[in-house]
Amino acid sequence: MATIVAGRFDTFDQAGEVARRLYARHFSASDVSIFFLNPAGQHARFPIGGDMHADPGARPGGIGALLGLVGGLIVGGGIGVTIHRFGVQWWPIPLIGALVGAYVGALAGALSRMRQRRAQAQAYDARDAGVILAAHVSEQTADSAMTVLRNAGAEDIQHTEGVWEGGEWRDFSPLAPTQPATHQEPDL
User: Fold this and answer.
1) Which of 149, 120, 137 is nearest to 60 (CA)?
2) Beta strand residue intervals within the chain, DSSP E
3) What is the pLDDT of residues 4-38, one digit of tens each?
4) What are the φ/ψ torsions at residue 9 (nearest 5 degrees)?
5) What average pLDDT does the segment 174-179 reach?
6) CA dihedral defined by 100, 106, 111, 114, rounded to 10 degrees?
7) How many whole angstroms separate alpha carbon 102 and alpha carbon 147?
8) Which fold does the domain 2-52+124-169 belong to in CATH?
9) What are the residues facing 132 on neighbouring strands?
10) Which of 95, 96, 183 is nearest to 147 (CA)?
11) Which conformational region is residue 167 in: left (phi greater than 0), alpha (psi within -120 to 50 degrees), or beta?
């Protein structure tokens, strides 16, 4: 496993300038990699696209829809019977009322359950989109690379282990959370 230091920038120009600073500190071109990280959900991990089989925020929607369906069926049916009894004497009114109530109840139940879990569902958005600059470092050069990234305003700076081959971070996972650097180096 190789030791890798990485940071996120807004533009390729910013990352390119930082790469030049690293080259000035005797990093080779095969020790620095710049790539774009797509927004969450756009990493095409599945043949039809996306990162997951289902959105984690949508999972509680099924039980919410079922509960809403039952409640809506009862309320809508009751309203339909009331209209049939005291208003329009047409036999499908209670059935229509029950079906409309079931539909509205299922929709409202699903949406209310999903809204409650929205904050928890954001956990899979492990990394923000942007330009990633990754540098293959040794024990002697890790502090220097982190200082350069920090001084350049890199966000989500991390110090991690990974597979570095052909000048690229091969086992980078856009779904894995950032592993922040554990220690602070003095600015030079």
Assistant:
1) 120
2) 2-9, 32-37, 130-137, 155-162, 164-165, 168-169
3) 999 999 999 999 999 999 999 999 999 999 999 88
4) -125, 165
5) 73
6) 180
7) 60
8) Alpha-Beta Plaits (3.30.70)
9) 8, 35
10) 183
11) left
The residue extents of the domains of the chain are 2-52+124-169, 60-116
Q: Integer distance in angstroms from the first to the last C-alpha of the chain?
A: 29
**What 3-state DSSP class applies to 88?**
coil
Compute the distance between CA of residue 158 and CA of residue 143 in angstroms, rounded to an integer.
12
* Distance of alpha carbon 149 from alpha carbon 145, whole angstroms: 6
Instruction: Return all residues near 62 (Cβ < 8 A) that are at least 6 apart.
Output: 110
| Count of Cβ atoms closer than 10 Å to residue 85 Cβ | 11
